[in-house]
Predict the structure of CXCR3 protein.
Amino acid sequence: MKDLRRYLVLKYIQYLVLSSSNVVSTFLGLLGSLYTIITLQSAKVSSKSTVVLISSLAKADILVSVSVVSKMAVWAFDVGISSTAFTSALLQNLLTANIHISCLLLSCVAFEAYLITFFPTESRHLRTVKNARLTSRIIWILVTAECALFQTDDLLKASSTSAPTRSPCILLFHFSSTAAALLRSLSYFLGILLRIVNVYIYYKIFFSMSNR
């Protein structure tokens, strides 16, 4: 559990403290996720709701691995790509999906820590493995839908210059563009809110533990 706590600290710094990712934090995050995935395969690790959330958090870095490996393959081997716009948008959207999944899962872990600290008995029926798996599944589904919308919007923008102005797809273009813009704004403000909530939760937990 000490290793898992260190991993959570690393992830909190990577996604909720740093304003943007960099090479060092990304590399350390990938190593931490790989080590965590291996650690969680051990029979010594009991199946708890927090462990389920951490496992899903570590698996989210697979999206980063796909993006990094693809970029390295293109750069190192000069691989030809049939659709540069599609690939570039997809790799960026995978990184965005990873950030959003990680922030939501880290917030779920923080909320569970809050319940354990202040409502250990009352919240026991909520802190179950089943609920943790359901929460992780919902987060993945929502962020996947978000990623699909962003990808559609990026593709329509890339092809808008060659498409006729009276094309039947023009309505789809305007709809996806508006929806993607609203969703990006919502994601931005939600990210700020999650940072504030996480700071408040751990502030309360820290002073509660200090008083004890």
Remarks:
- The first helix runs from residue 2 to 17.
- The chain is about 80% helix and 0% strand.
- The CA atoms of residues 11 and 29 lie 7 Å apart.
